[in-house]
Amino acid sequence: MAKNDKCGCGQGQSHKHATCDAAHVAAPNSPDDALDEVVLEERLQRIRHKILVMSGKGGVGKSTVAANLAISLSLAGKRVGLLDVDIHGPSIPKMLHLEDADVQTKDGEILPVAHAGLKVMSIAFLLRDRDDAVIWRGPMKMTVIKQFLKDVDWGDLDYLIIDSPPGTGDEPLSVCQLAAPVDGAVIVTTPQDVATADVRKSINFCHQMDLPVLGVVENMSGFVCPKCGELTDIFKSGGGERMAADMGVPFLGRIPIDPAVGQACDAGTPFVYHYSRTETAKAFEHVIAPILALSGKIATNQTPNTTNEGKNTPMRIAIPIAEGKLCMHFGHCDQFALLDVDEKTKKLTGKRMVTPPPHEPGVLPRWLHEQGATVIIAGGMGSRAQNLFAENSIKVVVGAPAEAPEQLVAQYLAGTLVSGANVCDH
How many domains does the chain have? Predict the structure, then answer.
């Protein structure tokens, strides 16, 4: 034992003993332990980015931010998992209307619950009764968090959003240890001093754990009256931004109080999807921008050209089909026609019909990108969907008539396709 080492950890007097008991993880001491570590590492290697959402204060809307952050990333075309590690008060299943979801297993692996383009896991799925109290000490909580990371079949993910309980205790500490390296933390606060004082502790926790702080979100920042438009600062305003500046960490933005957020949470509907036009939803979009930047630009297929070392690169045009003709809303179609075109000769070189996956927010742009589509011709498409296709390097043509796909492609190549009104604007 080192001199003046009161806790017996062998790291001497300068070691931060306040976190010693929880922060030290024993090395594997059996073949099973070693195998667990190998399996965990293999699982984590398939997850590109891991983001911890935390707060030093309860009741600041942390789980609301985590759920809508995950949905926003999914709408941006990312593959997203949402892990609820709030062992004593899990909220994510309620917010996504998954209270009665059954967890299935396959080949010894736990299958996460699929919802709204997400893969979701929570301790609430494993309780016999939703009102059961989980009365566990730290080691038990760490064990189940490890199981969520190691035994759940997350597959390949761009992001795993991890919703932690308030404070700087066992759960966020276990995540930092088990899921290392974690890309960073999003810290949620409300504007008033009583909240920001506790949130400072969360930022200091991140510093001690060498966990980057991606930024601070100031939730419940002002209330805009839906009738008169007057702004009322119920919980003051700007406290989170000032605190972020004092602590030298990024500020991600303010999210106003919106009754529709509470209604969406109680109804289990993704707020940012169903209320996409509101100022609150736009605020969520602003918050995710630095997180999307972690991935950099999406790797895309080469854009169509005719100078690829003398070879012609085919254009692949996707058209939503119902009853043999263009379906006026791409998200409600039975199939997609994928037509390959030689851009230089403007001739059709191939066609195949494919059945799309179940329609969920953000799924079709990513799926069509995976199918190699470079253009989509549609009757109607909302602005959000158009942005998602653009992010996946797929050119969008809207307002096309309900005609056979071959006719539409011929007209598009000849420059004679008449585009009418965009019949969808949501």
Answer: 2
